[in-house]
Amino acid sequence: MSSRLQAESLYKVFGRRPGEAVERLRSGADREELRADGTTAAVIDASFTVEPGEIFVVMGLSGSGKSTLLRMLNGLLEPTAGHVRFDDQDLTALGDRALREVRSKKISMVFQHFALFPHRSVRENAAYGLEVQGVPRAERERRADEALALCGLGGWEKSWPDELSGGMQQRVGLARALATDAELLLMDESFSALDPLIRRDMQDQLLELQKTLKKTIVFITHDLNEAMRLGDRIAVMRDGRIVQVGTAEDILVRPADDYVASFTQDVDRSRVLTAGAVMDPDVRGDEADCACETATPDTPFNELCAISARLSHPVAVLDKKRKLLGVVPRQRLVGFLGDERGEPAACATPRAKAVTTDA
């Protein structure tokens, strides 16, 4: 199956002579050199693919270029160079009218600030995208009500936006995107304006919806814990460039450079890592005939700690056929928690601080 979305060597430069600036960047110039000449390179040579049904998270600090990158994916910003392909259609080659057609029917966007119309009811807000498409009123209201029910807002259809909490208003924004049945959802810091508990509820809601709807989603965030929780894969951006693309485990265990390693040092690893990520694969065998407790590659880190605390030897990690894939010594668990004291202390669950930055 081919990728649903492809970004190919995307550049976005603001300022004078942007084409010339791209050539300078390709020749090795950096952002600071261009800034000295009054030119800003927001996105530099960004390439990635997004698979059907995948939540692809783009994360980075403020000013890293992630929101600019997102707006090039649906043509709200025209790339200075490069291509965006959606279902093998080159969006960067489309005219304005064709691009508006794609945005109205195939690609929906959920914003950080709810962008609801205060003079329209919850139902009318959820149906707005369908109204733009020219869908008859009865049909758009039916589809809007179905989307609202999916987002936990059944019974609130006739309410006004100012009668809803912030989390409920964001659910209306999500329902509006779902009502159009768009194949691609672009979510720009969609939960960042919410209080922490409501934000986690929205993350739960998105993950639950995804089990059924299997939408292709590009999700922008500056919060590493949110990225780790939501993303099937994560792209880390720095100074306009994508410095690493991988799973949460890839980024935690195999950071591409010192920047990624430092960025992830305070993340709560126990919520992300599994036995397959932390095991020592150099210890192998054809068969594990062991009566004691074992783990599978998907065993969560917290559960692995509990197993290790009950054993006097390393935990064996087995596949479904009971073949030994590797082992996890207690000291290895401690190492992955970043505890250099060497005392496993029953592998208590760590409570690392959330990694957040200003938006």
TrEMBL record:
One annotated GO molecular function: ATP hydrolysis activity
Matching PROSITE patterns: ABC_TRANSPORTER_1, ABC_TRANSPORTER_2
SUPFAM superfamilies referenced in this protein's UniProt entry, alphabetically: P-loop containing nucleoside triphosphate hydrolases (SSF52540)
GO biological process: glycine betaine transport; response to osmotic stress
UniProt-listed InterPro entries: AAA+_ATPase, ABC_osmolyte_uptake_ATP-bind, ABC_transporter-like_ATP-bd, ABC_transporter-like_CS, Gly-betaine_transp_ATP-bd, P-loop_NTPase
Domain ABC transporter: 5-264
Top-rank taxon, per record: Bacteria
Pfam families for the chain: ABC_tran
Cross-referenced Gene3D superfamilies: P-loop containing nucleotide triphosphate hydrolases
Keywords: ATP-binding, CBS domain, Nucleotide-binding, Transport
One GO cellular component term: membrane
Family assignment from sequence similarity: Belongs to the ABC transporter superfamily.
Name this polypeptide is given: Glycine/betaine ABC transporter ATP-binding protein
